[in-house]
């Protein structure tokens, strides 16, 4: 029995050896095929890479020269470009006829169409400092500042303040910084420490020292600080 098992084992080993002997050539052939493909690929890639490097070396000075020409070239700006230029948080400072400083600021400024002297303003604010130390402030939703005449046209929720406690509210107003006056033809309402007022228009003179109401107007005085309420136009 043991002799029979030995014979079977010998046959099995012989068959295994024959299979392995047949597998080795196939493995070698596969390896040779893969190696041949790699060699062929390298033959194609390496020459192409070399040619690309040579072209880059030849063309680089020209490309660099074009880059320099782009850097030093002139920039052409048209009139339309200038009209559309915008400035964020602009500030303009000047003095009036009495050498009192004033300042105009805004959230955004844009050159007015067709006019270099007009600057359109978004949420403009103005301040005038008086010689006696007082001040007048104004604000609106929109405005147009004329640099030549030093006037500021205000539109939308216009409010004028005086440091003595007076304020005016209207929809349109024109401020003349030179002579120090403001005026408007839209309905106006206002109040102060001892007065309520309303009118169809107004004129503020001498840096707020004098307020004139135009059209149908009404003024209520409170000389002793009594009860008060804002009087509307009628």
Quick summary:
By secondary structure, the chain is of the alpha+beta class. The protein has helices at residues 2-72, 79-83, and strands at 86-88, 91-95, 101-105, 108-111, 118-122, 125-129, 135-139, 142-146, 151-162, 167-176, 181-184, 188-192, 195-199, 201-205, 210-214, 218-221. A hairpin with a 4-residue loop joins strand 14 and strand 15 (210-214).
Overview of this structure, please?
This protein is of the alpha+beta class and 234 residues long. The protein folds into 2 domains: 1-73; 79-221, lipopolysaccharide transport protein A fold, CATH 2.60.450. It has 2 helices and 16 strands. The chain is elongated, with a radius of gyration of 45 Å.
Brief descriptors of the model:
elongated; 234 residues; 16-stranded antiparallel sheet; alpha+beta
Task: Give the topology, please.
Blueprint: H1 2-72, H2 79-83, E1 86-88, E2 91-95, E3 101-105, E4 108-111, E5 118-122, E6 125-129, E7 135-139, E8 142-146, E9 151-162, E10 167-176, E11 181-184, E12 188-192, E13 195-199, E14 201-205, E15 210-214, E16 218-221
Antiparallel strand pairs: 1-4, 2-3, 3-6, 4-5, 5-8, 6-7, 7-9, 8-9, 9-10, 10-11, 10-12, 11-14, 12-13, 13-16, 14-15
